[in-house]
Design a protein that fits this description.
CATH superfamily: 6-pyruvoyl tetrahydropterin synthase/QueD
Number of strands: 6
Radius of gyration: 17 Å
Shape: elongated
Strand order of the largest sheet: 4-3-1-2-5-6
CATH class: Alpha Beta
Order of helices and strands: EEHEHEHEEH
Structural class: alpha/beta
């Protein structure tokens, strides 16, 4: 089995509604996303000979996804009042509404499924919320 991995990062704020701790407040992270892909064999095409896929393509697609979150406030749908949401938009803040609680665990699944949807044979994604804390999502976990 051949595997390759690449990573990207973004800076963004979030908060966890109904959380009883510091994370209930808006705070930021340097999110680090690592994706791993696999293949049973390598390509035998002239340009991609000896590769699973071109790192350039994987990196481009991953960066296009993480760039959507960079320097935004990521929040779960329904966690801000409509009035506050409108005021923040009116003030020019970049908001990023997601349909999941913005945790490292949920982001790891989000990036897994999004890259898989682009046709990559993703085996695992890891999302670091801090230098020492991360969550992963993999096929094993999905099928396990």
């Amino acid at each position: 089995m051949y595997c390759i991995a690449t990573e990207a990062s973004f800076d963004a704020a979030h908060f966890l509604k109904n959380y009883n701790g510091k994370c209930k407040n808006i705070h930021g992270h340097r999110w680090r996303v690592i994706i791993r892909t696999k293949a049973d064999s390598l390509q035998e095409d002239n340009e991609y000979d000896g590769m699973i896929t071109d790192f350039k393509d994987v990196k481009r697609d991953l960066n296009s996804i993480v760039d959507r979150f960079d320097h935004t406030l990521i929040y779960e749908e329904g966690s801000l009042s409509k009035k506050l949401e409108e005021l923040l938009i009116e003030e020019g803040f970049e908001l990023n509404k997601v349909n999941f609680r913005p945790t490292a665990e949920n982001f790891s699944r989000y990036f897994f499924e999004t890259m898989k949807g682009l046709g990559y044979n993703i085996t695992e994604t890891t999302v670091y919320e801090t230098v020492a804390n991360y969550a992963s999502y993999s096929e094993e976990q999905a099928n396990g």
